[in-house]
Write a structure and sequence with these properties.
- The complex is a heteropentamer, with 1 copy of chain A, 1 copy of chain B, 1 copy of chain C and 2 copies of chain D.
- In chain A, strand 1 (about 180) and strand 2 form a beta hairpin.
- Helix content of chain A is about 65%, strand content about 5%.
- The longest helix of chain A has about 35 residues, at about 20-55.
- Chain A has 12 helices and 9 strands.
- By secondary structure, chain C is an alpha/beta fold.
- Chain C is built from 13 helices and 12 strands.
- Chain C has helices spanning about 1-10, 35-50, 65-70, 85-90, 130-140, 155-165, 175-180, 210-230, 235-240, 245-255, 260-265, 270-275, 280-285; strands spanning about 10-15, 25, 30-35, 55-60, 75-80, 90-100, 105-110, 120-125, 145-150, 170-175, 190, 200-205.
- Chain C is globular.
- Chain D contains 9 helices and 10 strands.
- Chain D has helices at about 65-75, 95-105, 120-130, 135-150, 165-175, 195-210, 220-230, 245-250, 255-265, and strands spanning about 25-35, 40-50, 55-60, 80-85, 90, 105-110, 185, 215-220, 230-235, 240-245.
- The longest helix of chain D has 16 residues, at about 195-210.
- The N and C termini of chain D lie close together (about 10 Å).
- Classes of the chains: A mainly alpha, B mainly alpha, C alpha/beta, D alpha/beta.
- At the B-E interface, helix 13 and helix 14 of B face helix 2, strand 6 and helix 3 of E.
- Strand 1 (about 10) of chain B pairs antiparallel with strand 10 of chain D.
- The complex binds adenosine-5'-triphosphate (2 copies) and magnesium ion (2 copies).
- One adenosine-5'-triphosphate binds near residues 60, 64 and 66 of chain E.
Chain lengths: ~425, ~425, ~325, ~270, ~270
Amino acid sequence: MATTAETFPRKVFRPSMLLYDKRYRSLTIQVVVLFLLMGFFAWLIDNTLTNLAALGRDFSFRFLGQTAGYDINQRLIDYNSQMTHGRAAVVGLLNTLLVAVLACVLATVVGVLAGVLRLSNNWLVAGLMTVYVEIFRNIPTLLWILIIFAIMTEAMPPPSAFRGEDATSSMLLWDTVAVTNRGVYIPEPLFSRSLGVIDMGSFLISIDLLAIVAVVGLSIWANKRLLAHATAVQNATGIRPKTWWKSILILVLPIVALLVVLGFHLGYPELRGFNFAGGTHLRNSLIALWFALGIYTGAFVAENVRSGILAVSKGQTEAAFALGLRPGLTMRLVILPQALRVIIPPLISQYLNITKNTSLALAVGYMDLRSTLGGITINQTGRELEGMLLMMLIYLVISLLISGAMNVYNARVKLKER
Amino acid sequence: MSDTHARTTAFVRDTMLPEAPAPIAQRGAVKWLRENLFSGWMNTALTLASLYVIWWLLAHITPWFGNAVWNANSLAECRAILDGRSGACLGVIRDRWHQLLFGFYPPQHYWRPVLALVLLFGALAPMLFSNLPRRLLWLSALYPFVAYHLLWGGSIWIPVVAAAGFGVGALAWRLITPYTALGAILAALVTPILWWVLAAGAVAGALTSVAPLGLEFVRSDRFGGFLISLVIGISGISLSLPLGVLLALGRKSDMLLLRSVCIIFIEFIRGVPLITLLFTASLLLNYFLPPGTSFDLILRVIIMVTIFAAAYIAEVVRGGLAALPRGQYEAADSLGLDYWRSMRLIILPQALKISIPGIVNTFIGLFKDTTLVVFIGLLDPIGLSNAIRADTSWNGIYWELFIFIGALFFVFCFGISRYSMYLERKLSRGHR
Amino acid sequence: NTLQEVIDRGEVRCGVSTGLAGFSAPDANGVWQGFDVAMCRAVAAAVLDDPMAVEFVPTTGQTRFTALASGEVDVLARNTTWTFTRDVDLNLRFVGINYYDGQGFMVRGDLGVGSATELDGATVCIQTGTTTELNLADYFRANGMEYEPVPIETNAEAQQQYLAGACDVYTTDVSGLAATRASFADPENHVILPEVISKEPLAITVRDGDDRWAGVVQWTFFALVAAEEMGITSANIAELAQGTDNPEINRLLGTEGELGSMLGLDPEWAIRAISAGGNYGEIFAANIGDGTPIGLARGLNAQWTQGGLLYAPPFR
Amino acid sequence: MTDTALPEVATDRRIDASRMKVTDEVAVQISRMNKWYGAFHVLRDIDMTVYRGERIVICGPSGSGKSTLIRCINALEEHQAGQIIVDGTELNEDLKNVDKVRSEVGMVFQHFNLFPHLTILENCTLAPIWVRRTPRREAEEIAMHFLEKVKIPEQANKYPGQLSGGQQQRVAIARSLCMRPRIMLFDEPTSALDPEMIKEVLDTMISLAEDGMTMLVVTHEMGFARQVANRVIFMDQGQIVEQNEPEEFFLHPRSDRTKLFLSQILGH
Amino acid sequence: MTDTALPEVATDRRIDASRMKVTDEVAVQISRMNKWYGAFHVLRDIDMTVYRGERIVICGPSGSGKSTLIRCINALEEHQAGQIIVDGTELNEDLKNVDKVRSEVGMVFQHFNLFPHLTILENCTLAPIWVRRTPRREAEEIAMHFLEKVKIPEQANKYPGQLSGGQQQRVAIARSLCMRPRIMLFDEPTSALDPEMIKEVLDTMISLAEDGMTMLVVTHEMGFARQVANRVIFMDQGQIVEQNEPEEFFLHPRSDRTKLFLSQILGH
Ligand SMILES: Nc1ncnc2c1ncn2[C@@H]1O[C@H](COP(=O)(O)OP(=O)(O)OP(=O)(O)O)[C@@H](O)[C@H]1O
Ligand SMILES: Nc1ncnc2c1ncn2[C@@H]1O[C@H](COP(=O)(O)OP(=O)(O)OP(=O)(O)O)[C@@H](O)[C@H]1O
Ligand SMILES: [Mg+2]
Ligand SMILES: [Mg+2]
């Protein structure tokens, strides 16, 4: 047993070791893969360059700086047809994000409601919710978008129906909301003592908005402090002080005060010329996309919620009851914290799906990223290669951000196991 | 009974009590109603609200279907018959159902896609039911070629020669494998490609001129409607399965480069909307291919859809692989099985079985997403509904078409998902 | 060499629009019909002696140029406006204007609008993927008016939006407006406003860099135009092909000179092209003229001798 | 069967019987209690009195209604007829009574049912803080006291998933004890455990019994029954078939059902 | 502790010691073998020679590296220093050697690791067919032979999920035997089994030993060790602490660690 590692004969290198030697094999394979991959990309790029050369084109993103020349009906930042394609793309991107966020909110609300109701012991309600989930899950999104769009354009009255003595339609909610086949007009928030805007060069920021965000943020922070204080009191004395009315005050008063200071009032839509004017115009395309994506995805969310709640076993509830916890507290302290861990990851991947599905805006002419950068811009400039690649890249970045958020969440709430 | 009260006295029951009927509140319709519908003011309110919703839906839908008009040849005619009442104009379905189902596929050949679909179920059976003879798997392997020939037609020698490519590969592998295993693998990969690229065309041409057998050729631009959804969906999912499995294995590999490539690929595909991939198929693919190559749009779409589905399948299969206990890998290793054999014989059969629900969900999602091809000019059911509406006689018809298309998709997707749940239960019982 | 490829393949691949009544649309049997379609059939007849040897590839506004550039189609006969950038920057080759058009507006009669200058604040449906958005933006901007654009992908959908009243105005090329209006149940209640806000020379297009093929397509088109000018119709062509006193007719129909072989075709190419669907005038009348539901007048598309712009260079 | 040697519970401790006194106070009084699941009659005319300090073991074949009986006492299940009075409070539709009973009766389940998202300490302090309104500091002290009693104070800041089954079950017992219940219910507390772990849990329960806790235990650990219980109740088909002191019960079972059951339980 | 009676393995069979001869041929030769998991040194300078026909039992506290050692012999784990020569083949980077060794060394795991999607027969024929390239018919005959040896030929067409744990472990042994290994490794083959089943598996292993199979067995079944092993190796902290013939090992353990370990193992 006196042999030492040094005396073991070292083998000389033989080519067959490339394949049958642990040390070299994975290297061999990876080098082969690398070469294949490089070859493949070289081939792709060579083809592309040849094709571009044959067409007498170059590969450049200069077109983003050129004048767009087309109008966009829904813009969250200032835009007109004399601005650049790049800016048009940004307007489109913001529209994409807007409808994505709206649809995510709707899907969450609908999904949570339907998921919880599906578990209700009311047979009728549970049955209705099952029907909702199955119908929406098994019919393509695109069809839902088209159906809701068709409902909006076909079944709603045109603005002209609101006009004249013998108007066949009238506005809802004390003449503040008009539902027409061109979209829904709702009151818009206006400030008579506006604080103005900050010019950031390429875009403007409303100081009013900043102020509101700041105040809401502060209120939420203050409320957090209040709750923390309540917990501290509870820890010290065992009795948790009532906080709900204080919470409401803290959350509501400051913002109301700010709105009063800013001279907040609503601008109501009214019929003027061809259309309603004033108010905020929610276009059909937005509504169709928003509702279709929201309700369609809501069906999936409902299933996630349901299985999340079911995953928290009956035993947990019973254990909590046996300890004397009331149903409300049981929900808050035992069921929800556990169910959320199960529900939130699939929920976030549904958000991802919604974001990707907003590209179906194409079906209803909603001016999102796809139809500005990936549509009219490509059309006008003929830069489909650059435009498409850029658009994919933007979607990819959004997706990675969302799934990154999901991973962070998962890592945070992972249950500790042995 | 009173004797049980005494603390230490023993108690024995001599006669067992019979089962007594439950009190009225605990059984029958009363209990059911009380428990399910009216067990509190909240529940009662929900019940009433649901009843209202159901009534409202029925009140709107029933007359619409009740007054349905079948025998009209245009919307105007239909409206005339309805005479102001609300009602469905199902005449459009009677007039155009064949288009919605088959597109412009020649009517005298409708039996071909139908037969292909029927055969599909036959081909699936050996894969799903392990108690059928293994030999039947050959039929499943042949199915793609049969289906291709049924759908597109043309010379029968084209699919035959294409299938022969695999035979050539297998032959090469057989012949070389006694000498060098690596050489055999390479040969098995290279010879079919050589066959397809160099020999296949000539051989097929020669055979065709000698024996011109085959069905009438149907061009892919005649494909449409539900048929195109099925063709894209089914070929997409079946082609993406092997690719997805490879990606999943790659993603689990301990070779850094291989793993990163797979991860990047999967995350890229999953991060962009399908629509952009379809646009790539229709707009950009020609840039990436050698000058002058151009092939069928449906084929390009199938390629893109395959790549798309493969990324999702890869994730599903990865879940299945992760769910297998480590012991299975070790047992396979300890028996001396090499990587590919242990994957093929031990790991994948189990991992794929675990993944069936996920695969089916991916398929249903993919199938619904085939409607997006309307954006690149293919006539899927939604595309056809636009085309039908462009016809002067059916200008302005919406709901009937949407409902018909929706019902088609619903029946198909719901059916599949239920069937897969049934299969799952069956399979999970099978081996216990 | 496209010509050789087409002959080898036995089929002309022709890019058309996905469906525009009168110009290109599949009928109930899936056979393509229309004005643009007829142009492709004439080319196929000239080159391959079979007007039906055409594979029609429906293209959208977005896909058409790539389809052409990549060789997916050999010729694009799809209401495509000839513009400077398309010609120079996108490297297309516009071989002949088969329809002189301009962008116009259509509104409901009961709106009481008589001129496009009264459209301030209107909601305008536009079919995207063409030059329409740009013209529209320029026009409203130049006149200091506001509008609400509603972009729609297909003509059918746009038409539906307009009919449902979701927009006040529908704008596209005047020919398209007429075609659309013709399909309405009540065409008389819709007016096409007098303003034409742009020049839209719709041209047949081929790839740049293949002059021989461009020549074949170009001169096939000119043959149709010249035939109308010379009075050659599908009815009398058989008779005229026997030889006439008019040397230009003889040269065109191949009884005299070698024009066909200069193109790389046989002498009877023009006879076949004209027999396929008739001369330009016949094609126009059969697909979009007064006698059809589309009901377009010849207008600018009349022969130069009739006060129009159609002008075929001499066959000599 | 009667001559089968009784299994000995695996403990080294000598039981201090003097502390395990049974008093005259009634802890639980059940009379003519009936329960149905739908049309199925699970519990039939149950009459039973538990005195304070008693340790009752309930056994019987699977499906005989043992769990259901014990869960009725904690109002986890409703009964449809008869009366259950726990610690002077009748269980009826009055939710306040239910709350009162639940906070005075501790329950330990077969599958522990610890809250996996809370640490051991948090598991133990949750109910005292939110139900008893004990200040946190104090609740934690109580919890540590009972964790020491079940011999795992050092695990206080781990999560349930990090403990072994036996440790988890002991935490579950400690968690119940933190509410300072007057009665403890156990539903097969050891049947999900490995043999080594069974011992540690039974030890904990024995020490609880020594402290004079009133206990109702559903279990098949006959060694435990013999050593600790002062009464064994045998149930079958939803009814109490036999009850007796453990020695008598095991050595001279009277009803045929009991004999059959014991032969099965002890036979293998 | 030394006076504790050794537990007797629960078997009725008398061992036929004459057949269990140890030869001079070296089956496994391990020298100065070291292994690390990351920075953790699991196996330290292991030196060990196994002669053909030997039956070695390896024991030691949990985490001492027993499984790791045995898995190194089968190349399921790589070692980082030193030498392992199995049946004349050195385990090194050469994958061909690894394949060779694996097909000559059988391994039985704690959790059986049968392939649940294959029948018992298919489990047994899989490796012979695919690794040894035995014709199916012949492979099936061999499989049935060994299934008879482990006494479950009648289960051949069932699936593993349909068998009890003991039966599954016997199938796992038969599966290994079908490859006609020259050495068998066992990693706690009985520790996942109920007591009744342990016996049937141990019986199988004993009959294997009688046939002269070279065996390395990680187990805590001391009765088995005493009856079958001709050498017992005690490991702790990744090193071989003591080895001896079984009688000597149990009756006169020399190192303190061994004594402590034996007192724990045999004590409860
Ligand atoms: N929620 C329920 N709904 C309907 N029947 C039930 C329900 N819970 C239990 N049962 C039935 O009531 C009977 C008694 O159940 P219980 O759980 O009390 O039995 P057990 O004596 O505890 O049996 P085990 O020893 O298996 O735990 C069983 O037949 C069971 O099937
Ligand atoms: N894959 C691994 N990565 C890191 N450490 C490991 C790994 N496998 C085992 N270990 C560690 O190596 C040590 C030895 O493990 P091994 O499984 O060989 O012990 P053992 O003696 O078989 O114990 P047991 O009796 O519990 O099976 C242990 O401390 C274990 O935690
Ligand atoms: Mg029970
Ligand atoms: Mg081990």
